[in-house]
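Possible regression after last week's pipeline update?

I re-ran a chain I had predicted before the update to compare outputs. Posting the input and the new output here so someone can diff against the archived version. Not blocking, just want to make sure nothing changed silently.
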Amino acid sequence: KQYDSGYGSGVFAVLLSQNGEVTTSSGLISSGDVENCISKWNPVEDCFLLSGDFVGTLVVDQAQVSSTGGKDLFVAKLSEELTTENLIGLGGVWNDRVLDMNVDASGGVTVSGTFYEQIILGDQVYHSAGLKDSFLVKLNPQDHTVLDSFHWTSPKDDRIDQIASKNPEHLYFGGLGLSGESAEVGLFLSEMGNRSGNPVVTSELPSETWAKLPFEFSLRTAGWVAPGSQFSLSEQNGTAYNWLQPSVNEFGVITISGTAPNEVGQYPVSFLISNSDGESLSVDFLLTILEIDSSPPTILPESFYEIFQFLHFEKSFELFDRDGDSLLIEVDAPSWVKWTWSDDMYLKLSGLAPEGSLGSHPITVAATDSSGLRTSESFKLKVQPRLITAPSSEENYDFDSENWFGHFHLMDSGWCYHLDLGWIYLVPNENGMQLWFWKKGWGWSWTSRDHWSSTDKSGYLYVDQSQDWVYFTTPSNYFSARAYLYDERKWVIYSGGPTQ
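New output (post-update):
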């Protein structure tokens, strides 16, 4: 993937394999500056968190936020595949800055930062007593709505540089503020909330698995007074089975794995998880081993495949049955996607993405063997526009060298954010040398490779609703773009539409 911030800036996240190879990436692009970023892993939500400061409009996937004044804060929630699940902006009329971010044992997110004059956090409006005040804001782990906030203020500059949680109801925080009788700015350490904890298992306990097959279950815990303490785990009540291996990580997440025994039946499982602060939690459940005569089908697609509109494509991945059983295969995909299964090993998807297919399309492949065992896997097929400067062969198509329309990012929905034109809905012609796009306020506009210069950030647009030509130009990006209306002989701000 390639990201271009134009005259703004951006921040990117990448996932690396054990060999150091990039497996996936995500880019957040802003019309202004993006800086001072902090990243955290949320083990409860299985997601990455990214926070920082930005100016202007920040765009990633289908989400965007705009700053209300100068610098604002953003908090983005990214899945394990780095797709955007949520994006929020926080700020006031002046410059605001993020200082720290903490994830507690229940997955709650707390952010600290500074603000000038005024900031709005949920339903609360805070005003600074000095030049610069600090704040804490706690966010819902699912949708990042504001749950609570706290204002740290004095007549001097204040900062909350570090935050750490004892449990979801308790927080340590420290930084710079007034201290002592001399009323001088100095270091401080404070706390709020309730230290007492009541550890619990927050995940559903496992109940069954298949005989002779590998298994793995994850159990999350919460409510520890000191979730950062070292955890240990031990079996209880004589349930130390040699085919079952429990373990616990630094977040108190228990993993139970192994290969189920041949003997079917019910097996009591009991173990104790404890930490170095003396807290403990007993976990007890009954695991039923079910009889099975064969292994379920195996399906191994990538998480997504990228193809180009109007170009024939073929994508293959492994689909097989370890026992050689016959398979019933079902593919839920767009009508223009065809599939074949060859050599009892590979499923091939092929076809040609037609007009109106830009964006991501979910595909689900399921296989059921003769024993009734079923496996289902879902992934995405992302259709990118095919734009060309000259006729070229399908096999040698290179989007980066052929794209004449400028820098834009295609969202899963099919909408594009173009760095010069803003949000548009793109409909390229099949020949790749001309296109229509829909823009709020302007309706449908047409242009072509001969009428548009991405290098000069300018070009001629034929606007359908006025049945006339418009000259578009911008010195930097969408927010400074202007358009000359030939029929009215005047310049207008492009983002405001033609009627100004």
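Follow-up from reviewer: compared with the archived run. The chain has four domains: 9-193, 200-290, 298-384, 399-496. Marking as no regression found.
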